[in-house]
Known about the structure:
globular; six-stranded antiparallel β-sheet; 16 helices
Amino acid sequence: MNQQIVLSNWKFKACDEEEWRQAKVPGTVHTDLLRHGIINDPFYGVNEHELQWIDKKDWEYEATIRLSESWVGMGQLELVFEGLDTYADVYVNGQPILFADNMFRAWRVDVKDYVHAGDNQVRVVFHSPITRDQGSLHKLGMEMPAPNDQSQLGGLEDHKLSVFARKAPYHYGWDWGPRFVTCGIWREVRLEGWSAPKITELYICQNQITAQVADLTAEIEIHSPVDWTGRLQVSSNGTVWAREVTLISGSQVIKLDMQISKPDLWWCRGLGQPSMYTFKAELLEQDRLMSAKQVKTGLRTIRLVRERDQAGASFYFELNGIPVFAKGANHIPNDSFIPEITNERYRHEIATAAASHMNMLRVWGGGFYEEDLFYELCDEYGLLVWQDFMFACSMYPGDESFLHNISMEAEYNIRRLRNHPCIALWCGNNEIDSAWAQYIEESGWGWKQHYDRNQREKLWTSYEALFHRILPETVSRLAHNIAYWPSSPLRSLSRDENQHANTLSGEGDIHYWGVWHSVEPFDNYNRYIGRFMSEYGFQSFPELKSVLSYAPEEQLELESDVMLAHQKNSSGNRLIKEYMEQYLPDPKDFKSFLYMSQILQAQAIKTAIEAHRRNKPYCMGTLYWQMNDCWPVASWAGMDYYGRWKALQYEVQRSYRDIILSVLEAPEGEIAIYAVNDLRDQISARLRLQLFDFYGRVLYENDEAVALEPDSSVQIKSMARESLLQSSDPQQVVLSIRLEREHELLASNLFYFAGFRDIELSQPLITICEVPGTNGTSFTLESDSLARQVWLSAQEEGIFSDNFFDLIPGVPITVQFYRRSNQERPFIEGVPGHVTVMSMADFI
Length: 844
């Protein structure tokens, strides 16, 4: 009785042309043009610059759907567009049925009066967002701040149009992404028909969850074309809750209270298993199934804890009553052309996050509300999600139609995502409060100074309507058990000068960019620590294999046209070079520069992560910028566009382990060793120290018992630098620090008494031998002298269990290769093919 047809066999063309071509739906006009050979690879060379004409045209798509008499005789027929990008007129058999103006929501239209038996034509006309919103700008009468909108590249001078369209902001460019203002049918299109009651939504409202009992309410939305009486039941794990219902024609919501004794709770990675329940709702008429819908959810209580304390106010997430130290990254879209992101690419990213010991990802507000699969994988792998609404680094209009559009967008996406246990927070926007800085005249990003008093009042009134009224009210109404945070970063919602984020204020979340944008030293990561570090980062290039995917050999030079086109931060290449000159040996050529940039990035973020973790529970979260890339580019990502792990990703994997050792040297020469334990168990272990020279001779050794309290960070040992070194040359020794329990290595770290740039490295002889019995998947590496930042590169795509590590003579390291797989397990043990082994000495 409930049927659907997915529309296929689409064709497309420019509205001012005659020739139709086959289209791929879901898709974009850019990728359709590429498949037909009309444009060159948008990501190669400087092709991006040559493709800016596409967004100035109107485009149309058309499909034909053949319907039988039984189909058109159904009581209800709806045409469903899961995603239209962005301004679209829709026609059925030549009759207008819809004007869409929001990429971020689905559109449902009753088409029963527009279709007939036989062939029916569906036509979608996409209007250029550039042409459309030039009119919006003219109507508003003033430019809006949107510094990441690459309007000049788009031929628009300084006219920033991205703020007017409810479309992914990064499509207009960002400081890591290209400008491809797409259009097209980017999610599924289908026709749905039914003549009996239909369950359209099932929400499992979690009223109160404890280890003893889960108190739930199933909220079932039903659309019925006719009055109807029957049985509604919800089942899970063999338990059934049911009641008789009487429906009237139209839509209604029926609620059913449920309880589950001793539920298996959903936990994030590191705290327990991410247990899930499947709930199935059914409408039955005398045991005949009329309609059914099922959802999966995890039972948990998630709370943002902001309580006053001596230092200011806390900022952390509490899951099932347990404080969580958030370890993770900021996620951006995986592609400039969203329909190109395969299920395998999603699984690769989320599996990478889990393998890197993360427990949280922040879906940043300049992208889009992610595909269902993204959240399903976060549920599965136990990753919490900090979810931004799609607003970033701009001020926005506040007219009635725009605010209504946002209200519909927010309602749609909250409803779509609220069954996912991974959702930990809804955040209004990225960086707008701190950029505008309403309550401090000479603060912010300098935006306010471009507007008179009346314009400022108008812009801030619009801001408050959107982020302090509409969005929090919608979250409260539809997902009351999830916290709302108006802007990131933010100190508090005080409506005075104390509202805006301040690194040393002792409350709120912080974006710290002194290292990188302000060229501050890495050591400042140890000084500027907030209660929750929701953004910080450092750039690098991808590896040579990835760079060659967008640049020919003759363009492998830092200031070449292609390198500059694939460096969207105007100061990026200069900053990498400037920092490299401070911290690392000089690379011998540009290819070596690529490798050294990754080492530099990894060292920066290692410094930050360890500082944040050492300072728990004052600091309770560290989310670096950024997890991934949307095209091959020099950026802040730890994993490049092709999913290849940079040195940073391996460093993160080490730095986010549940137990770590961290070393901090005070200016007066005192060396302090810290142990951080995120587990809920006390740890009894041995702390083993060994001072090696660069040829493997042990110059000092110490072994002592230590105890780590659950969920703690503590200094476990302190030593004077000189007492450790004695007569040793500080530029020729390394301190190995290991935490061991019986024969198990719990944590390790290395401490050098001189910086990378001050250490003279000899050329090591590194041997790599296959581990017997592993069928070519495991290898042991040894070196005859210190080998720094040993890089293993495989012929096959995949990851090693460890990489970019230091090899001390006499201390072998064994690694396992995991081949990238297009299966349920994204990483499986495999043969890497030819393995290249290099160390820093090969690049200087």
